Amino acid sequence: MRIRVRQTWKDQISNPEKVSEILRSILSTESEIDRDKEHIWVLGLSTSNVIRYIDLVSLGTLDMTLCEPREVFRLAVMKGVKAIIVAHNHPLCRCRNKGCYAVCEFMPRARGIDQSPAEPSVVDAA
Questions:
Q1: Does residue 126 lie within any of the structural domains?
Q2: pTM of the predicted model as reported, rounded to 2 decimal places
Q3: Domain assignment of residue 121, yes or no
Q4: What is the pLDDT of residues 1-28, one digit of tens each?
Q5: Which residue among 8, 27, 36, 102 is the one 20 to 30 A from 94 at the CA level?
Q6: Quick count: other Cβ atoms within 10 Å of Cβ 44?
Q7: Is 78 in contact with 104 (CB distance < 8 Å)?
Q8: pLDDT, tens digit, 9 for 90 and up, residues 59-118
Q9: CA distances to 12, 39, 75, 96, 106 from 57, in Å
Q10: CATH number where 29 lies
């Protein structure tokens, strides 16, 4: 589900805190039931690190969500963005489970197509 990028979000993304602020804003507009579910978002960035799109690629349950690389990279390839940010929340706890570590390790390897280094960062959007 694509999320309309607000004008106030079109500043350059320079730190994880800015991403967290945007995702918290998105979560606040959702129903109370959906706020209690795990989400995976992909933010597509321009060459100047401005958000071109925000895509909710997976809406899960209370304690898990599923996502495949094709969902993460599909819109990025179609839109020809320079970089993506993959963000994930934990609605009821602040722990990072084995699944999160798997995503953090897998996504950089999956994007090895362009041979550029990945710089993972933890964004707290819960």
A1: no
A2: 0.73
A3: no
A4: 677 777 666 778 888 888 888 888 888 8
A5: 8
A6: 22
A7: no
A8: 988 888 888 888 889 999 999 999 999 888 877 665 555 555 445 555 555 545 444 444
A9: 23, 8, 10, 19, 16
A10: 3.40.140.10
